[in-house]
Amino acid sequence: MKKYLAGLIGLAVLTGIMNQAPKASAYGYRNCNAVVTSDTIRWKSIPPRFRASAVSFPAGVWRNALAESVSQWNTNPSKFYFNLTYDEPSVGRNNGENEIWFSNDDSVLAGAPAIAYTWWSCNPFSIKINEADVIFDNRVPYTPYTSKSSLWGYGGSYRPFQTTASHELGHAAGLLHENRFYNIMGQDWTHIHTNAGIAKTYSGEDASNGAVFLYGLYSTPLNDLSVSHWKRAGASGEYSTHSRTQMFTSGGALLASFNDAGEPRYHVNRGQTVQVEFTYENNGAATQNPNVGYYVSSNDNITTLDTFLGSVGFTLGRNTPYTARNYVTIPNTLAPGKYYVGAIVDRTNAVGEVYEDNNSTYIAIQVH
């Protein structure tokens, strides 16, 4: 999503000295001074209060979708979180209040499906974000629902509102776009967690790491692990692009697949050893050493009640998302048909997590 940057000290616009983070770091942020890294532009008073428009977000499904996106951001391991309130009667840019609304005003949206405006100060005595506003284009085919079959990434007709909201909230928190890693600050609608037919937003490892850089760790450790069947595919300007993770032969050749209701389904044989690829993320405070279990299921709801195929141990730090391939063998006992090979990160629940619903996902297979 486009972002509009307006940095002000008095009447002086200081966009000329804003600096993105050096490429050695995995997330983008703003600095008032290219040399003094402590001059990062961030909120000084936490939590900032964001007011949702009464017209755009009345009680109901759209308000619930926005609240879920904010709630996901508020599980990040940093000291930063949002205070969201509702029923704001009047909204506008640069009015001293942080607001969220829908609009069809092209002069405001600047050609973007959603946009975050940020005003900040580079006064040496008060370097801070002063205001942020988030606006969504009400002509975009957003959906507040999370059924995967309705969403762009799964052959559907709708853009997930929650992921776009999470992306724009990332800007409101002080983060810039990211194109080097699988990231919510890249192509948002494919940075998503899916299991059991439900696809939901989450802030992810890289954005969480950026929030910790800007605001420091929260005093109580907030830990979260996740696994996704999406990965970084490349870059489009400032944005990372994402594609589905894949399945390979034991020798590393990509298996043949076909499109099944908007998702890839890979051809495998009973008794065949294959490599399954998933993206693992540590979205929390501390390095973890989770046990990842692999399973085969007759449906896309991967649980520990499914047929166990094996496990592997990972060390996951909070640095960058980790896309990896691991070997599994398709059981000889399976009847030919459609199945799902799944991964469950922290399958033994050894890690106390603030959010458990993003620990399982799948790749579809056709067994012969």
Q: Could you give the distance between the termini?
A: 43 Å
Portion in beta strands: 35-45%
Q: Please identify the structural class as seen in this structure.
A: mainly beta
Identify the CATH class of the largest domain: Alpha Beta
Compute the number of structural domains. Answer: 2
Please write the string of helix (H) and strand (E) elements: EEEEEHEEHEEEEHEEHEEEEEEEEEEEE
CATH architecture of the largest domain: 3-Layer(aba) Sandwich
SS element count, helices: 4
Name the CATH superfamily classification of the largest domain: Collagenase (Catalytic Domain)
- Radius of gyration, in angstroms, nearest whole number: 21 Å
Features:
six-stranded mixed sheet; disordered N terminus; Immunoglobulin-like; single chain; 2 domains; 368 residues; 25 strands; 4 helices; seven-stranded mixed sheet; 11% helix; mainly beta; Collagenase (Catalytic Domain)
Model description:
The protein is mostly beta strands and 368 residues long. The chain has 2 domains: 2-219, Collagenase (Catalytic Domain) (3-Layer(aba) Sandwich), CATH 3.40.390.10; 230-367, Immunoglobulins (Immunoglobulin-like). 11% of the residues lie in helices and 39% in strands. The protein has 4 helices and 25 strands. The strands form 7 sheets. Strands 2-1-8-9-7-5-6 form a 7-stranded mixed β-sheet. Strands 18-19-25-24-21-22 form a 6-stranded mixed β-sheet, with no helix packed on it. The longest helix has 13 residues, at 61-73. The radius of gyration is 21 Å and the shape is globular. This is CARDB domain-containing protein. It comes from Merismopedia glauca CCAP 1448/3. Residues 1-26 form the signal peptide. Keywords: Signal.
